[in-house]
Structures are given as structure tokens and as C-alpha cells.
Amino acid sequence: MSGRRVEVVEIRRLGEDDVPALIACTRRCYGESYPESDFYEPSYIRSELHARRLLSVGALVGSRVVGHVGTRIPIPGDAVAETIAGMVDPDYRGLGLMPRMGGQMVAAYRDLGLVATRHIATAAHDRTQRNIASSGGVATGVLLGHIPAGTDYRGIQHGFGDARIAAVVYFHMFGRLGSLDVHLPEQYAKLVADLYNQLELDRRLVLPTHTGSATPGSSTRSWAGSLHHDTRRGISLLRFGSLAGNATPPASELVDEMLSQCQGVAYADVPIADRHAPQLLDLLHERGLCFGALLPGTAASEAIRMQRLSGTSIAPWATVTASSGGRALLDWISREYERTAD
Prior knowledge:
alpha+beta
């Protein structure tokens, strides 16, 4: 920025006419390496904006988009959304554009009835994370290989080399979420209870009344799921119950399919307001998945994300966190991953 004249930067919601400028900004920030390939597709972005599944706020100099933050609403009508595509043009960094865009985004949430957001923030650097943490976001997980190796963070150096890049999960509340009973296996109870305390969420933990090896019994056979393979990002995503939409395949069969066909990274999202969750979480752990993140939400969307990394290089030591809570989670999850991988 030194030596360049000061320009007026406007912060506003983006519409369909701004899509070409948004894609140009994505290319200036990432080249062709941005993991969300849909953010290079004009028709996709326009359709998501038109359907109000994507809320988009940009920083503009004239008609040029020089920064962006988006919010995706994965479950229509749910009170919790997910942020996406937070970026600032390399020539406009250091001006505080991300907090300004974030403030405009929060104001827009009221129109949609949103009370909280989940953020999956790159751990290649802490610039985005600092803004999330300083505005009240609480780290609730670390995904050890979420971002493909070779992602080009233009103007930013990181220590992941040829390994996949981790991401830190944050949760940020702007309103109130209702109380819930959540069902957990005992091995995650202390960790999750501590996260709920940090978030000041009203949750009653319900633990199994018996112990023993988890098996794919009647409850997991009857619980439907969906499985999606994203070859560009190298991620397979398995969702169960209320998170799976209208899917019908039984959970136990999908676990087998995921393990035999999955990409280098596999996630399994288990809704924990369902009383069958402990059995399924234990089954996933026995099949080589470990805790990745708590994803707070409503009765339909609150979940634990399990993660499995197969035949892919990761570098936990290169992971950058912006809070002591994030660092503690990284240490805990890294130990769990090492035990699972043994």
C-alpha cells in the first residue's frame, strides 16, 4: 500500500452483477487454487445469491471487488450458518477491511434470522482467525488436513510445504440458541463440556448407561446417511440423520463405503441431539476416525465432526492458531489422531 494513493473503499452486500468482479478478486488472492471450485463459476454464485443460500459482502473500490466474506446457509430455515470465502486482495491488506466486512455481515444476519455462525478458518496464517477470536468466536475444533496442499495464499508464507493445510473451527454467537440434550460417548464428554462452558451454551450431556464395544446394531442400520466425494478438495463427507436431508442409505453401509472409496480426507458429521449418536461415534472411532470439531447449532444441526486422514501428508506443527483455546484443541486432537493412526 505504501506509495499508492489512498482510495475510498465501500463496504456493501454484493449482488448478481458483482459476480465477475468477485471471481477476479478470488483469482488475485489464490490464482486458480482456491479450494471452493464453485467460486470460479459465475452461474453457481448467481444462483446461490438469487436463492438466498449465499449472503455476500464485499469491499469495493469503484466496481472492483478488493475483499469478500460470504455466509452459506446449509440447512434452510436453520438459525446457524457457515462463513465462506473470506479474502482480501493482496494490494489492500492492512486496511482493516475484514472487520469492516464482518460488521456489515453481522448486521445482515438479522434479516435472515441467524443467531450464530461457524467459521472454518485456514491455519496457514492467523489473520482471519484474529478477527474471529477478537469478535467473540470460540475455537471448537481443528481439521488437520482440510485444505489441499499447494493452495496459493498470494503474499502470505506458511510452513505446510507439500502437506495438506489445517483449518481451525470457530463458533460465534450473536443471539440465543435454545437449550438441548446432547448424547455423547464418555471419551468426549469432558472436552465437549468445556467447550459448552466457553460458549455459555445451555446443554445437558447425556452419556450411555452401559459400556462395551460399539457394533453396527439396529440403531445404526436404521439411521440414514449421505456420502459426497469432492475430488477437487480431496474430501469425502458423510452426514447422518437430520444432516443428511432426504437420503435413505443406512449408516453402517455408508461407513464401509466411505472407508473403501474415500478421498485423502474423510469427515463424518453426527447430529448429537439424537440419542443414537454415542453408538455411531464409537463405531466411527473404532473404524479409524478421531474427533475433529464440535459444530454447535440447533436440534437439527448440532453435530460432532469426526475426521480420518488416509495416505495424505499433514503437518500439525505448522498449524497457526489465534487463541489459547485453539492451541489446546490442536494439542488434544493431534494426540487423538496419533493414537487412532497407530
